[in-house]
Structure to design on (738 residues):
């Protein structure tokens, strides 16, 4: 890039004034150096520096140049997307083709290895030529001077005014640039300066640095650049926008390529024959655009955008990346981080396939699915039958097929969805923790009058009166095993009353259930003791929260905060201390084992004490081929949602079928079997190839006396009971939205 103006651009009045002023200041120097021998000139250059390395701005010693951050899947190889304000990535000189190094020197600074950072002879020649005029201006800047200017004008630690001053057409700025360049040349090796220059120079079409340019124009790393490709790129830096063969003039780009090749011959870098051969090569571009942000994930994988957005939201909460949200956002876009996420491409692919198998992209109903690793909290997959996109939707379609709302993780305007009887787990855990055993029995009636006042179809004499939908299969003497396996509403409402509803609510919160709806949060805070229907899953939740809660049980009582990364590495190769599992024990291990033992009943497996006698999702056992698995189904009132969450010691997966825009739109009971099948197949993919791990049986103390005073023969499987809530589904939806 010519300091005194583009060689192809007309001279502005300001540029002419700057040239004349600088010519006046250095006129004596120009006349003197014209007759000086080379060695004496070099000495004069060094003595004229008037600066030292110690006095240099910190950014010139250790450049804080912006670089893009990379997000990879958990294999560390599959690129999800990149984030950047400036598209650039540093590479060492050893990873840049030698012909590229030779080309940039020939194009921009033939005497690079001879001068002391500021080439007074070249500057004098340019000044004389520019004062005389003649249609084009000549640049007098060395590579080192250009490097100084590029650092100062892009330094993110400087103010906007300071960055703008780095290109001011003033004599003072030019002299300061010469001083800085001379100080750098005395302290750094030529190869170090060349490396820094190649990593910061702008090559047009949004590409900063040789790594970005090589990928942008030719789709390859800079180590693989050919002679013709190197000459083309080297020719761009003088006037990147005008010469870019992508967005500028291809003929001008080829003309500049020929100029660079001739210069390489003049510097003895190549022979005339090699130059002629390279000139004859056609312009073989393979332009590639680097994705930027979550809406620009890899082609064909826009479902990854929901995970990407979850990671970005997590990033903005991490103090390691800055004191404020704005600083953390800027760090992601300019810090040059390498982020290995926890996303497993195989699990994600199965989850997305299953979600779209149940509902297509253009269906108003959705099946968000989340997978979590027990014992670490790492989020392995986040899928839903939506495109993560800002593209417009057809008229009347609020969130489909395109949306960027967090349908899987919740937040923003997404409170979540009712998960029905999956919340019975929290009642069972609270009961076990209180000293009750798995064999705690109750003769569950078809309807159970409670002390909670209510009106409407779910009431008995003015009190809330939950019911079992299939009396022949659900009613009668039940213990935790078959009460959970058959999803007996009246058993669990009774059990919650014995334990205390507030204890059940606290248990859910302890395992990570977040109340995003204001009405739910207020009920939990101010009236949990009277929240009789809580055990039936009337509070809104998300697949991610639910999967992680069940993962806590799978990890024998160890809760881990959900985390979307495996590692984060800074641009300098230093590991950032974030993303490590943040876990704590929230349940006694024996309590968690007991709950797991009962949770094997719904999925068609047998407890360690032989007490399972029917389940609502027995097909899961067949899909997992008998591998140890546990889980629970859930149907909300009027089948407005259908849920299944399953887990093994290695993975927990939850899916909730719902209409994200209209909770009064019931998905219907028919979809339950599809949700169960979808979640089970995601689990199967997650554990494929992993060693089979058995659940640890609970103690006999927590099992209790499993003898039944009343025995009822098992009958063919029936679906689980829809939950009841004194509030209507529509009213709850309105409550959550104020």
């Amino acid at each position: 890039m010519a300091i005194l103006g583009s060689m192809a651009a007309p001279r502005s009045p300001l540029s002419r004034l700057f040239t004349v002023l600088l010519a006046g200041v250095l006129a004596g120097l120009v006349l003197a150096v014209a007759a000086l021998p080379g060695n004496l000139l070099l000495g004069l250059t060094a003595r004229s520096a008037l600066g030292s390395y110690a006095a240099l701005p910190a950014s010139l010693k250790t450049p804080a140049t912006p670089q893009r951050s990379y997000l990879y899947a958990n294999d560390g190889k599959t690129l999800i997307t990149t984030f950047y304000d400036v598209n650039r990535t540093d590479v060492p000189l050893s990873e840049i083709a030698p012909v590229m190094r030779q080309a940039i020197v020939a194009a921009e600074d033939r005497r690079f290895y001879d001068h002391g950072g500021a080439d007074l002879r070249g500057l004098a020649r340019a000044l004389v030529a520019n004062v005389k005029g003649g249609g084009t201006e000549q640049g007098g800047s060395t590579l080192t001077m250009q490097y100084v200017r590029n650092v100062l004008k892009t330094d993110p630690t400087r103010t906007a005014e300071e960055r703008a001053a780095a290109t001011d057409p003033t004599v003072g700025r030019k002299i300061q640039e010469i001083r800085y360049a001379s100080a750098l040349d005395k302290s750094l090796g030529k190869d170090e300066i060349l490396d820094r220059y190649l990593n910061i120079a702008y090559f047009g079409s949004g590409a900063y640095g040789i790594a970005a340019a090589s990928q942008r124009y030719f789709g390859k790393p800079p180590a693989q650049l050919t002679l013709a490709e190197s000459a083309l790129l080297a020719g761009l830096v003088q006037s990147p926008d005008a010469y870019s063969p992508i967005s500028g003039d291809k003929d001008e780009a080829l003309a500049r390529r020929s100029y660079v090749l001739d210069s390489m011959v003049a510097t003895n870098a190549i022979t005339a024959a090699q130059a002629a051969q390279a000139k004859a090569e056609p312009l073989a571009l393979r332009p590639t655009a680097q994705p930027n942000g979550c809406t620009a994930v890899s082609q064909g994988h826009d479902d990854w955008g929901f995970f990407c957005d979850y990671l970005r939201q997590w990033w903005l909460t991490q103090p390691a990346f800055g004191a404020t949200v704005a600083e953390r956002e800027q760090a992601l876009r300019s810090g040059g981080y390498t982020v290995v996420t926890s996303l497993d491409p195989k699990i994600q692919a199965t989850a997305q396939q299953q979600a779209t198998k149940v509902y297509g992209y253009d269906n108003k109903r959705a099946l968000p699915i989340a997978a979590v690793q027990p014992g670490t909290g790492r989020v392995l997959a986040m899928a839903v039958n939506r495109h993560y996109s800002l593209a417009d939707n057809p008229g009347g379609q609020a969130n489909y097929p395109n949306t960027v709302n967090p349908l899987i993780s919740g937040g923003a305007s997404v409170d979540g969805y009712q998960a029905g009887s999956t919340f019975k787990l929290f009642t069972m855990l609270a009961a076990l923790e209180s000293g009750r055993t798995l064999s705690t029995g109750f003769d569950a009636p078809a309807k159970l009058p409670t002390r909670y006042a209510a009106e409407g179809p779910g009431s008995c004499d003015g009190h809330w009166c939950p019911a079992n939908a299939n009396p022949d299969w659900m009613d009668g003497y039940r213990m935790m095993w078959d009460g959970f396996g058959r999803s007996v509403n009246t058993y669990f409402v009774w059990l919650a009353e014995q334990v205390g509803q507030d204890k059940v609510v606290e248990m859910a919160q302890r395992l990570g259930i977040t109340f995003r709806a204001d009405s739910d949060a207020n009920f939990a805070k101010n009236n949990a003791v009277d929240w009789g229907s809580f055990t039936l899953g009337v509070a809104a939740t998300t697949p991610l929260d639910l999967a992680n809660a069940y993962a806590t049980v799978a990890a024998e009582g160890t809760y881990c905060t959900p985390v979307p990364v495996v590692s984060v590495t800074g641009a300098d190769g230093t590991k950032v201390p974030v993303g490590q599992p943040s876990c704590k024990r929230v349940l006694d291990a024996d309590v968690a084992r007991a709950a797991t033992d009962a949770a094997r009943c719904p999925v068609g497996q047998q407890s360690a004490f032989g007490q399972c006698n029917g389940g609502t999702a027995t097909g899961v056992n067949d899909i997992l081929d008998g591998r140890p698995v546990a889980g629970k189904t859930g149907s909300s009132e009027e089948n407005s949602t259908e849920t299944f969450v399953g887990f093994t010691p290695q993975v927990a997966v939850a899916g909730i079928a719902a209409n994200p825009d209209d909770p009064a739109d019931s998905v219907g009971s028919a979809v339950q079997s599809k949700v169960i099948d979808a979640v089970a197949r995601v689990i199967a993919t997650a554990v494929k190839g992993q060693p089979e791990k058995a659940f640890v049986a609970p103690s006999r103390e927590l099992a209790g006396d499993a003898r039944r005073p009343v025995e009822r023969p098992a009958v063919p499987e029936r679906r689980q009971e829809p939950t009841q809530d004194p509030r209507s589904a529509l009213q709850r939806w309105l409550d959550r939205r104020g």
In short: The longest helix spans residues 171-187.
